[in-house]
Amino acid sequence: MAAGHLHSQELLGAQPLNDWLKTLQQALQLEADRGFTNLQGRQERFNGFMVRCLGDGPPLDGLQLTASEPRPEVAAALLRLGELGAAFQAYDAQSLSRRQTLVRQSRERLHQLRQVLQPPSPVGPPRLRLPDHIDGPAKGAGGTNSWGNLDPDAPLAEIKGVGPKTATRLAQLGLFVVRDLVHYYPRDYLDYGNLVRIMQLEPGRTATIVATVRRSNAFASPRNPNLSILELHLTDITGKIRVSRFFAGKRFSTPAWLKGQQRLFPPGATVAVSGLVKETPYGPGFTDPLMEVLESPNAPVQSESIGRLLPVYGLTEGLGADRLRSALSSVLPLVRGWTDPLPEAIKLAQGLIGRSEALQLIHQPKDQVDLQASRRRLIFDEFLLLQLGLLQRRHQLRQRPAPVLSLAPGRDALVQRFLELLPFALTGAQERVLAEIRQDLLRPQPMARLVQGDVGSGKTVVALASLLSAIEAGCQGALMAPTEVLAEQHFQKLAEWLPQLHVTTALLTGSTPAARRRELLQDLVNGQLQLLVGTHALLEDPVQFARLGLVVVDEQHRFGVRQRNRLLAKGLQPHLLTMTATPIPRTLALSVHGDLDVSQIDELPPGRQPIKTLMLKGGKREQAYGLVREQVNMGQRAYVVLPLVDESEKLDLRSAVEVHRQLRDEIFPDLRVGLLHGRLNSADKQAAIGAFARGETQVLVSTTVVEVGVDVPEASVMVIEHAERFGLAQLHQLRGRVGRGAAASYCLLINDSSNPQARQRLDVLVRTSDGFEIAEMDLRLRGPGQVLGTRQSGLPDLALASLTDDGEVLELARQVAQQITSQDPELTSHQGLAGALADQRRRHIEQASRLN
């Protein structure tokens, strides 16, 4: 067998090698003990003996090693020994310090050779017997036995083992009844199930060891008389460790108490220790760990925490972790009697454990296998109820009659004439999505469709063509945008086309004068006004339509479900088209918009220029300003975007007002620099945008007001100050404001942060222009709440599931929910799921009422 393929067990027990190594080590030890005098033996001196032995080399015959093919590490060790043999020839002539070094090196290299040829067999982890969790029946209200007889909605104060005082503390966490406490999941776990030997301890990780007490000492701190320290010296077959526990308070410093602590951990006792491993001056160690002396090395540990996965919960003042775990131990046995809403067939098909078992194991897992099985089941339930609710909402919507927006033969002239007015042809993706929308409008059920498209993909044109289809079919249309700037931008664009098509349109925002508002509301209710564009003002009660047929909601993620439904309620049952230029990751779209059909405009119009994106440190701002000047001199325009309007005292950020003054007066005194931010009134905003669009201003300093809607083809540079303060999806939106013309375009991200994570995030934007890849990364880095950017987004209440990490379970739950609702939309044959869904809705209402 080739030496390179030898296994360690084939190298063990080679007696000639062991004897050779032992003899040499003894000779070296004797020489050191006698003062490095080159001892005279019976036949030869010490150095002659070493020259001969090292020159002949170790006996390797029994190890199946061949000279032609030794392992590299073996060959290196033998070479180093040969070099020492030559050095021993001049041993007599060497100084004392050189002799000492030679002897020490020889001992080290002989030890290395033993390690290479006979590596120690790996030591397995220690054994620790864990008792089962106490599963005896809990005592319910009145102290009676209650295997599930206690209502999940029973007040916690009535549960024996919890009591009124703890119940008051739990109420501060929003936990009022048994169900609340059981569903108060751990936010993390300390992995004390990581059983290792002392040699394998890693600083920064939690672990459990089983070791023997060599010495124990309890003493008052010499620096602080109110602090006492218990110090244990422990050992196992791989090494030694020092463990310390600290006790604050005078009562712990009495000699009797200290002696009592020492007696608890006598030398020779076996102790189990769980805690966080820290680096100490003496090597890895434990500080204030959990400890228990075992009755014997094979006895089970009595602690409910040592050697296990220990759950970590969010706490409140006056409620410690031990008290919360104790309260849970009082109610968890009740879970066993609760019914499982999921049919047995689905559990078997999806490989899911029972819900009662999952609820117990999420709080008291024995190991990672338990934890993963319980998480998977509970996450599946959360996603399944979410999807069932969305699909039921979709089913109920489809039961309502909607106007069939069909056109008489040859009556497609309005849309056709509009498309002929455009200076470009629709892309294939635009035509496909428009066909999907028009197919929906022909049905007697209301359309509910989301159109996603990257910045500049042409969603507005598709939306307007859809609105014109509704108008030609004899209905009115509404277009709602989240900001006045965007609503006015849409209105200005429509004003170019609709008068040529003899379609009446108006704009309604919070800034619309009262007289104009009364006039257009009258035109709306009598049907003379065919298309109304506006902001949230469209939701107000005075706004009434004669026959509303289609509602288009732009940047729909800025609106909540309730706001959307308020607008829908203003018609008989209008069709709904929502649009977003913010790509939404699939998991987020399924969770928030699972009741909508999704269309994708996945093709940019021809001629759109790729945008070159660069990241600059704050100190290289001059490079950015140089590019701005260069582009303006070529007839282009530039944006400079900032996160703040005014300077913040708390944050060291440049403000839009200050940067506008600096650019206008110092950097570009020869250029025309405009200012746009959200605190300007509507007329001033429109004036600032109009001046920039017409070229009257060449550089526009702005806050994120320009994120959506502002369309200036001549703009070719986007400078974003403090880019690290923005989300990736928002930066992608801002970048989309340039590159709309024929000129090469640039986006410069100025990063003032030294945080490596900030740089990593911005690198994503430099590397890719794929909106969906950017959105996925944004979701992973910032979470769904910040990605959607609004509390009213309809984001689901998920206690355990993560839209970032649990996408596979979400897809699975979606499939199961579709199978169930396709056969049983009202859940009449799935009473358990129907009850769980009703309970969830009731609790949401109760929670909302408590918050109010």
Structural features, described:
With 852 residues, this protein is α/β, with parallel strands linked by helices. It contains 28 helices and 21 strands. The strands form 4 sheets. Strands 11-12-10-13-14-9-15 form a 7-stranded parallel sheet, with helices on both faces. Strand 2 (206-220) and strand 3 form a beta hairpin. Helix 3 runs antiparallel to helix 4 (72-88), helix 4 (72-88) runs antiparallel to helix 5 and helix 11 (355-363) packs across helix 12. The longest helix has 32 residues, at 368-399. Residues 1-13 and 134-148 have low confidence and may be disordered.
Task: Summarize the helices and strands and which ones pair or pack.
Layout: H1 8-11, H2 15-33, H3 46-56, H4 72-88, H5 96-117, H6 163-171, H7 178-182, E1 188-191, E2 206-220, E3 227-236, E4 239-248, H8 255-264, E5 270-280, E6 283-287, E7 290-293, E8 309-312, H9 321-335, H10 344-350, H11 355-363, H12 368-399, H13 413-421, H14 428-441, E9 448-453, H15 459-472, E10 476-480, H16 484-497, E11 505-508, H17 514-525, E12 531-534, E13 548-553, H18 561-568, E14 575-580, H19 586-592, E15 597-601, E16 611-617, H20 621-633, E17 637-641, H21 656-667, E18 673-676, H22 682-694, E19 699-702, E20 715-720, H23 728-735, E21 745-751, H24 756-767, H25 771-782, H26 784-788, H27 807-823, H28 831-851
Parallel strand pairs: 4-6, 9-14, 9-15, 10-12, 10-13, 11-12, 13-14, 16-21, 17-19, 17-20, 18-19, 20-21
Antiparallel strand pairs: 1-8, 2-3, 2-5, 3-4, 5-6, 5-7
Helix pairs in contact: 2-5, 3-4, 4-5, 9-11, 11-12, 12-27, 13-15, 14-15
